[in-house]
Amino acid sequence: MLYSPILIIAIFSFTEAKVLGNWTGFSLDLYRNLFEGGVSNSMLRSVENTLTIGILAAILSTILGSIAAIGIHNLKGRTRQAVTFVNDIPMLNPDIITGISLFLLFVGLGVTQGYTTVLLAHVTFCTPYVVLSVMPKLQQMNPNIYEAALDLGATPSQALWKVIVPQIKPGMISGFILAFTLSIDDFAVTLFTKGNQGLETLSTFIYADARKGGLTPELRPLMTVVFLVVLILLAVINIRTMKSNKNKK
Asked: What's residue 67's pLDDT?
């Protein structure tokens, strides 16, 4: 039942009917319009913004999250528990609370809202998930490897890049994929931080399009493609997790 609406959208993406639910015969015209540029410029810009923000947010959050995970891993006692608790807050907060908080922060600082604020907002709520992905790899790592590298003449930066990073790379990759998935899926945080400069991501474009009384037909094949991409990414994450668990055993 939960996936039936997605299945319905996928089925009716293979007909050129303007109204969802009206089958006028099998056709690939909507897919042809989607991939050959026969759609509105605003829709194409929203897709472009979604992908670029998602990729940049995933890269930045992966870097910040990996560094933060290493720092948290090296903390001790109550300090580590306190920092871990603070890291978990963005994941436990409802998206709308995070969006309103960031909106008030940007307004209070006098920052013009637009592409940059949306990117910063996505990095903010994606980074804790990267920390969560990298931490298990750090816990599995032999704690003496880093010190052994230093004893053998490596500098701290060399030991970081040649010893620690290869050990946590699977967690970084999983964190990157998860951050990208969360970014392209987000609506509430983006809505509160995009400002009024005309910036639209795919989620906000669909929201605005629906408020006009209907959805652009080409959104049906686009949603099908996005669902398949996200499904593949989640499958990759789960397969990597299963392999990691087997190796740990």
From this structure: 93
In the chain, alpha helices (H): 4-12, 29-35, 41-73, 77-92, 95-109, 115-140, 144-151, 156-159, 165-185, 188-193, 202-211, 219-248
Give, in order, the Cα–Cα distances in Å from 154 to each of 30, 31, 73: 57, 54, 21
Burial class (CB in 10 A: 0-12, 13-18, 19+), 183: buried
**DSSP code string of 59-85:** HHHHHHHHHHHHHHHT--HHHHHHHHH
DSSP 8-state code for residue 163: I
Per-residue pLDDT at 248 exceeds 70? no
Q: Which amino acid, residue 51?
A: L
**The model's pTM:** 0.82
Question: pLDDT at residue 240 above 80?
Answer: no
Map residue 40 onto helix, strand or coil.
coil
Which residues, at least 6 apart from 10, have a Cβ–Cβ distance to it below 8 Å? Answer: 220, 223, 224, 227
Tens-digit pLDDT profile for residues 44-65: 888 899 999 999 999 999 999 9
- List the one residue out of 120, 131, 65, 126 whose CA is nearest residue 90: 126
Query: Which range among 57-71, 95-109, 211-225, 233-247 shows the weakest confidence by mean pLDDT?
Result: 233-247
What separation in angstroms does the CA of 222 have from each of 9, 58, 217, 218? 10, 22, 9, 6
> What pLDDT does 4 receive?
87
CATH class given for the domain over 44-248: mainly alpha
